[in-house]
Predict the 3D structure of the following.
Amino acid sequence: METISTFVFYVGLIIFAAHFFTALFERTRVPDVLPLIILGILVGPIFDIVSPDDFGHVGPLLSAVALSLMLFEGGSHLTLKTLKTSLKDCVILSISTFLFTIIISFSIAFYFMGMDLIPSIFLGTVLGSISPAVVVPIVRMLNLSEKTKSTLVVESAITDVLSIILSLAILKTFQAGHTTIIAFIGTNLIATMAMSLLVGFGGAVIWSA
């Protein structure tokens, strides 16, 4: 019962903080995501007021649902016509940004921090993502053109997918007993991604019609 009460309290606190910082953004133009990130760092790793264990098994589920809703809301204004005009820019920007971030992060971790090869690559793939959780709320509140919004939202989604695929491939390869990363990608992630793309594309076509 105490765990449930704590969980409900923190969820309510997060909702209140989100509305408060949204109102603050309208006055100061400071994105509400930044204060929320700082607040999370303060109450989590620094002061240890909240830990992932406080949310139990519901925490990862809430994170997945929240990210899905943010991506849905961020992409709900997109149309196939707008997406066609910005798709090329999205792919180029996504891949170049992702690879550049991986190279920089890997170089710092491997050459300056003394980390091993695989952990350095893993760190690079994790940091290579421009999280939709940060991009989508900011894009939604800024006065940008539809093409710019489309480019930023799709670019963040692509880098997030690339980061998840490569990071999971590196992390799960040895846990699953595969000999290579390619084996893990071929046996697990490709099928999942294909189904997700099929469902997502079908829903997008229906939504844009």
In short: The first helix runs from residue 2 to 28. The chain has a mean pLDDT of 75. The helical segments are 2-28, 33-46, 58-75, 80-112, 117-127, 132-141, 146-175, 181-208.
